Amino acid sequence: MTQEGGPEVREGGPQEFDPEVVRLAGQVFDAARGGDPALVRRLLDAGAPPNLTNDRGDTLVMLAAYHGHAEAVRVLLEHGADPNRINDRGQSPLAGAVFKGTPDVVRVLLEGGADPNAGRPSALEAAMMFERRDMVELLTSGGGATAE
């Protein structure tokens, strides 16, 4: 788990994290994947970092977006989560939502400042690659991306 200003690494030997921190992180990831906006909000209000990432670089926003949970994405963005943070494979949350075909999540991410051109493939490139004209229209209607 990584996070700017995250858990302190103990000296000597492999990284060890407080078991309570690990448990809380697991709850936050499960809440994002499961799409429970009330639980996501409670955990963030209790101090969970909104840009927490897993060992693959997936943020909470990425997990909520990929699993189609628009309201959980909205809560994360309201708490300062970065809609453009790219995972270790170069993917953005917006590209994940486009790939999964969830227009409600795409709208929430765009409203939250997601860049249709971020990542590789970008959300716009993914929409065109999978011939998702509905997604191309949604991504370009806000004026943030251009289909080439």
TrEMBL record:
Protein name from the UniProt record: Ankyrin repeat domain-containing protein
Assigned keywords, A-Z: ANK repeat, Repeat
Annotated Gene3D superfamilies: Ankyrin repeat-containing domain
Pfam families assigned: Ank_2
SUPFAM superfamilies associated with the record: Ankyrin repeat (SSF48403)
Originating organism: Allostreptomyces psammosilenae
Annotated InterPro entries: Ankyrin_rpt (IPR002110), Ankyrin_rpt-contain_sf (IPR036770)
UniProt repeat feature ANK, residue ranges: 56-88, 89-121
